[in-house]
Amino acid sequence: MNLLIMGPPGAGKGTQAILIKNMYNLVHISTGEMFRKAYMDKEPLGILAHEYIKKGELVPDDITLSLVEETLKKVPIKQGFILDGFPRTLNQAVKLDEILERLSLKIDAVLNLVISYESLVERIIGRRICKNCQAVYHITRMKPKVEGICDLCGGELIQRKDDTYEAITRRYEIYNQTSKPILDYYQKKNLVYNINSEDNIEVSFIHVQKLLEGLNDNAKK
Ligand SMILES: [Zn+2]
């Protein structure tokens, strides 16, 4: 089973991807991780990509696509993968299909995490991060035992600088603009499955599981 996961920043995409990977024994391909690993391993493409990331610039498509292709080649046959944080543009989606065709692979489903703007704001504005160990809390959904203090290490809980209304709104608008053509592209292939992500991580994951069990059953028929 080969999956792609999409959703606005703050919808819990990375968390769902890890839960899905563990449950279905998939290879989790996150572009952020992929860039970091390729850089640490001193791969030429990784070093090149790092030059852009360092400057806060987007990594050009040809570098990203080559790295994705290299990474996909290493996925063991019979084991599926879940792509997280890619494709980010329509061009990348089209090129991804070319890569998959070369490797005789295909995407089985695009999981689209759907969350309202209001819920997203509530989730992000209430988020608190441990200054010391980066553990994540929420002022109503996941309270620490002592207000303002990390349960795990006793560190101070702070709000991220870019967790403001303005920043959330901007990220949400940019996401909607860039994801629309990608979702349209996959919609035409009947691959998009919307996942209700209004509630917490556990509830969203139950929706995901139901969907994937259904897909697996269909694949067996
Ligand atoms: Zn901590």
Characteristic key phrases:
221 residues; three-stranded antiparallel β-sheet; Rossmann fold; 8 helices; binds zinc ion; five-stranded parallel β-sheet; alpha/beta; globular
Q: How does this structure look, described?
A:
- The chain has about 220 residues and is of the alpha/beta class.
- It has two domains: about 5-115 and about 170-220, Rossmann fold (3-Layer(aba) Sandwich), CATH 3.40.50; about 125-160, no CATH class.
- Helix content is about 50%, strand content about 15%.
- It has eight helices and eight strands.
- The protein has a five-stranded parallel beta sheet with strand order 2-3-1-4-8, with helices on both faces. Strands 6-5-7 form a three-stranded antiparallel beta sheet.
- Helix 2 crosses helix 3 (about 45-55) and helix 6 (about 115-125) packs across helix 7.
- The two termini are about 15 Å apart.
- The model has no long low-confidence stretch (mean pLDDT about 95).
- The structure holds zinc ion (ZN).
- Zinc ion binds next to loops.
Please write out the topology.
Elements: E1 3-6, H1 13-24, E2 27-30, H2 31-40, H3 44-54, H4 61-73, E3 81-84, H5 90-102, E4 109-114, H6 117-125, E5 127-130, E6 136-138, E7 157-158, H7 165-188, E8 192-196, H8 201-220
Parallel strand pairs: 1-3, 1-4, 2-3, 4-8
Antiparallel strand pairs: 5-6, 5-7
Helix pairs in contact: 1-8, 2-3, 2-4, 3-4, 4-5, 6-7
The structure holds zinc ion.
